[in-house]
């Protein structure tokens, strides 16, 4: 029974978003919304408009649609259905004092509809968890921006807490390590690759407070001066995963994937580094994608099949992707504890 005096906390889970269908028209609509975001393509609006309407919409959308068709399953886009499963499991675990809603930064279900759902449940406060372990302005920052844009229009602005990163959350690390351990215990691997979604190098420099981060060894340790540096957070996640898996420094590499355009992105690039591994005797490789908590185009297709093909062409024998956290019980527990702590 709904007690009128029971206080309720709203939880808003937000992932990146995905096209409604893998058809070119829907992929184009998705890419337009995604890439018109000034935190993603950070060039002046008129240039962004020309880039998107002159190149992305006519040329990239049909190419991406082909890949989305490979990714699509009976339940649709994995990014969306895994996020729905996570939301449902989390609601079950948190019980009636919480109401959990799911929004996507781009396309559907929208952040607006998820926030309206929470408002209609009379929640006292809202905890927003962008489902990106490492903070980047293009992902987490954009979610924060959108949430604030919406609630600033409400007559009553709710109490909001943002969980802006969980790159070093012990349960997140344990949950990811457990997925990889399954493979490591079954057969031998010569090397581990932690491949993160890349961002343009200038995004790191723009976020660098007092010019601390310069894309060098500045990110090798994590402290208050690089607290929001995506690169430093990726390195930290990797060190913690390596520790949890008992890996020594030479046994793993940290790399960046999915670059777009000609500007320099974070290096080393995964597709370049993996082609050098076989010549170094590293012919059996286990690849983690710890920037994603749900399987998506960038894990299943890019890491799981495109990189595998490149690796085998370069003389590699076995390339294995570690699936993402999706709605695995350890991950649901990790999210539950993040919410309870806040
Ligand atoms: C880890 C979080 C992400 C960051 C940071 C990020 C930055 C970023 N991405 C692009 C361009 C594209 N990304 C695409 C797909 C995609 N990106 C993320 C996450 C982050 N992106 C996810 C989870 C996905 C997969 C979505 C799915 O439906 O499965 C795409 C679309 C696919 C394609 O056409 O290749 C583009 C384009 C930029 C430019 C950027 C930072 C500046
Ligand atoms: Fe992306
Ligand atoms: Fe840094």
UniProtKB/TrEMBL annotation:
Classification via Pfam families: Ferrochelatase (PF00762)
CDD domains: Ferrochelatase_C (cd00419), Ferrochelatase_N (cd03411)
Compartments reported by the entry: Cytoplasm
GO biological process, one term: heme biosynthetic process
Entry binding sites for Fe(2+): 197, 298
InterPro entries in alphabetical order: Ferrochelatase, Ferrochelatase_C, Ferrochelatase_N
Reactions it catalyzes: Fe-coproporphyrin III + 2 H(+) = coproporphyrin III + Fe(2+); heme b + 2 H(+) = protoporphyrin IX + Fe(2+)
Protein name, per record: Ferrochelatase
